[in-house]
Automatic annotation (TrEMBL):
Secretion signal span: 1-26
Biased composition (Polar residues): 413-423
Keywords, comma-separated and alphabetical: Signal
Segments of this protein annotated with the region Disordered: 403-425
Keyword GTP-binding: no
Pfam families xrefs: YjbH
Organism, as annotated: Salinivibrio costicola subsp. alcaliphilus
Protein name: YjbH domain-containing protein
Coiled coil regions, renumbered to chain: none
Length: 727
């Protein structure tokens, strides 16, 4: 462990005193703007203690903090202007993950935790900003605590004062009997197998004052902090686990922050009068991320002379332009003498208005004498929406023939109608194939803190008409570290069918057939869409199933129902299925059960902008039966920022008790979906995703289906293809 003299602390204290004296004497100096920084744990605050301040809406921070006791790895996201969220991994230097060195090796003890801060009101002339927060929600109690804190600005100074409970109140200078216990009788156990929210112990135990001041120096990149710590560290995990008290010589912490522009900051602090703590934070803002495109210039409105029809070459050239310039791939074009109809899949622009305006200009420039243009947006060749553009009104708009001309004046959005007329051009290709990289990673495992796999997936699909698709996917592994997995069956004593925790066995195959299936897609009436499918549906399961979705156009609501009968695939076999439910013990692991046949499915409510209070939010609530035959509910909440980046969290609670479920008590996870047009120089509607599940368990697990009708029908009330505010 590191040791340090108190000279370092005195040096930092002297720097703070010098800066404060300078600020007092420089009444007329116009100080740089104070940018609030992160705490050691992640989230805006001082050092160990939070403040009422929050980051700008959409701010995302990736950070790490190191001292001789802990290493914190954290991500913080300002989900709403009033809600800050933090996810953190903490490693303890002097403790191993388990007592069995043959199992965890030198992997350090790792704790996972989640924090949240809710701003109650913003600062005014007389009143401070006020916030309430919780640290380490649903964890194992290493750092759990609650707080109420206020912050008030005075020139270059930002003062904060709060009351803490639990980890932030263990100094007990307000209430609490330290003679009773080091944590004043607070229940520090956790229910079930951990991972559940223990509401009963919140705001109990010791309470203490905490607070401090953050000072913006005249030198813009540098700010200084002084903090009174509400924790005396006698109940800290290291002290209680090892029996060796942590060194605490002072309740005061002092620190400095150096900012590298708006993308990062370095932190250095002297804490408890005993330890140096150093940290680094990297920043971006999901609302402000913008694409850099090298796109084709939008076509100018320059129609040629009117003509009753076009030549075959002209129609084919128009079809190619509609694909490359307007983004309507897999299109076909019809004409009946009055109406030009374009049906295709928009794969270029998230903003449908941009695509439709380009398409209308391209059609008009051919000189075709048509009264209107019909543009039918399709997905998987199913009609999703239709936009009718009046040719004469569009000509007046394009030439600015009247004040306030707007493309919306010329177009009407409606339910897709059957097409008519002679087919003039067809760019449809019934065979599609491609390669895609796949990178999977996991954090906080018992065998190693970080594991990954890198590979490539080959995808192929053949369309047998407008409704039937034959598809397949093959994964080829390039490199991975998942061979560090030590067990076949989780060592927590659970006896559920191993529908997901057998993932190591599937990963052992260098080449894996992940999908071979037939899918039939169709629509009925104005608002109903269906699919049926069968085959090897995903890496671990084969079977048959179907889905029906009711989705009115422009509605915030949709309702879906899926039902499936599946069997578990056998690892090591390209197309084999498990025949026996009970698998014998081998290689030191106990026997286990697998899924040899079950029905699974869910009814799902989709709700955009729920209650009208959470703009840019999608809630999905599912109820049904899961793969290991448990029954319950999944709630999935996603927030989409102005750039199109989406961040979501989900949780599934079923009829399994915490003991039956195993470690974690219930399934939960997080994901990020990023539009590829933020990462490439060409506009596209495609997306890439990253997901994180703290623990892989068997309860609350859904079938991974190739197609989701809600995603297929996105154009009816765009969510995944919502236009960026920068389009």
């Amino acid at each position: 462990m590191m040791s340090l003299s108190s000279a370092s602390g005195r040096l930092l204290l002297s720097a703070v005193a010098l800066a404060v004296s300078h600020a007092v004497s420089a009444d007329s100096f116009d100080y740089p703007e104070l940018v609030h920084s992160q705490t050691d744990f992640g989230g805006v605050g001082l050092m160990q203690m939070p403040t009422a301040r929050t980051a700008p809406d959409g701010e995302f921070t990736l950070g790490s903090t190191y001292n001789e006791d802990y290493v914190h790895f954290n991500t913080s996201l300002q989900l709403f202007p009033w809600l800050e969220t933090t996810v953190r991994y903490t490693q303890v230097h002097d403790l191993l993950y388990s007592n069995d060195p043959d199992f965890s090796g030198d992997t350090k003890y790792t704790d996972k935790s989640i924090d949240a801060k809710l701003r109650l009101w913003q600062e005014s002339y007389w009143l401070p900003e006020l916030a309430v927060g919780v640290r380490d929600i649903g964890g194992t109690g290493l750092f759990d605590g609650e707080y109420l804190v206020g912050s008030k600005r005075a020139g270059p100074f930002d003062f904060s004062l709060g009351v803490g409970w639990g980890y932030m109140g263990n100094r007990a200078d307000l209430t609490g009997d330290k003679n009773q216990s080091v944590d004043c009788g607070r229940d520090t156990t956790y229910s079930g197998k951990g991972g559940s929210v223990d509401v009963n112990r919140m705001f109990t135990g010791c309470t203490a004052l905490f607070g401090g001041v953050e000072y913006q120096t005249p030198y813009a990149p540098l700010s200084l902090k002084l903090e009174y710590d509400g924790n005396d560290y006698k109940a800290d995990f290291i002290s209680t686990k090892t029996g060796i008290p942590m060194e605490v010589n002072s309740p005061w912490n002092v620190g400095a922050v150096y900012r590298f522009g708006d993308w990062g900051a370095a932190r250095l602090a002297y804490e408890r009068g005993a330890v140096i703590t150093a940290g680094l934070s990297l920043h971006t803002n999901f609302n402000q991320v913008s694409p850099f495109w090298l796109d084709d210039k939008a076509p100018s409105y320059r129609p040629t002379a009117k003509q009753a029809d076009l030549s075959d070459d002209q129609w084919q050239a128009l079809s190619h332009q509609l694909a490359s310039v307007a983004g309507y791939q897999d299109n076909h074009v019809q004409f009946d003498g009055d109406t030009v109809t374009v049906a295709g899949t928009q794969s270029k622009y998230r903003n449908q208005d941009t695509a439709q305006t380009r398409a209308a200009t391209l059609i008009a420039n051919t000189g075709i004498d048509a009264k209107q243009y019909r543009i039918i947006d399709q997905a998987e060749r199913q009609p999703i929406t239709e936009t009718v553009i009046d040719a004469n009104t569009y000509a007046a708009v394009a030439t600015n023939s009247y004040v306030g001309a707007n493309p919306d004046d010329a177009r009407t959005r409606q339910q897709p109608q059957p097409t008519s007329g002679t087919e003039k051009a067809n760019l449809r290709d019934n065979v599609d194939a491609g390669l895609a990289p796949v990178f999977v990673q996991s954090f906080g495992g018992s065998e190693d803190f970080y594991m990954y796999s890198l590979g490539v997936t080959g995808n192929a699909a053949t369309r047998l008409g407008d409704h039937l698709i034959a598809s397949s996917s093959v994964y080829v592994n390039i490199a991975d570290t998942y061979d560090k997995f030590k067990y076949t069956v989780p060592p927590d004593g659970t006896d559920l069918k191993r529908v997901r925790t057998l993932n190591r066995q599937y990963l052992e195959d260098t080449v894996r057939v992940t999908n071979v299936q037939l899918t039939y897609l169709d629509h009925w009436g104005d608002n109903w869409y269906t699919q049926t499918y069968g085959g090897y549906l995903e890496t671990m399961f084969a079977g048959v199933g179907g889905e029906v979705l009711y989705r009115p156009m422009n509605s915030q609501f949709a309702i879906g129902l899926d039902a499936n009968y599946v069997k578990q695939r056998e690892p090591g076999s390209a197309f084999g299925l498990f025949k026996n439910e009970y698998q014998p013990a081998e290689n030191g692991n106990r026997g286990f059960r697998v899924q040899t046949g079950t029905t699974t499915g869910h009814a799902t409510l989709y709700w955009q902008n729920p209650l009208g209070l959470f703009n840019g939010t999608l809630a999905k609530i599912s109820a049904g039966r899961y793969l290991t035959e448990d029954v319950g509910v999944t709630v999935d909440i996603a927030k989409q920022f102005d750039s199109g980046i989406t961040v979501g969290a989900y949780a599934s609670k079923t009829d399994l008790s915490a003991e039956e479920f195993g470690e974690g008590s219930f399934t939960k996870g997080f994901y990020v979906s990023i539009p590829f047009d933020l990462l490439s120089v060409k506009p596209t509607t495609s997306r890439g995703g990253l997901s994180w599940q703290p623990l892989q368990r068997d309860g609350g697990q859904k079938l991974n289906r190739k197609y989701s009708l809600y995603e297929v029908t996105d154009g009816r009330a765009p969510w995944f293809t919502r236009p960026s505010n920068r389009d």
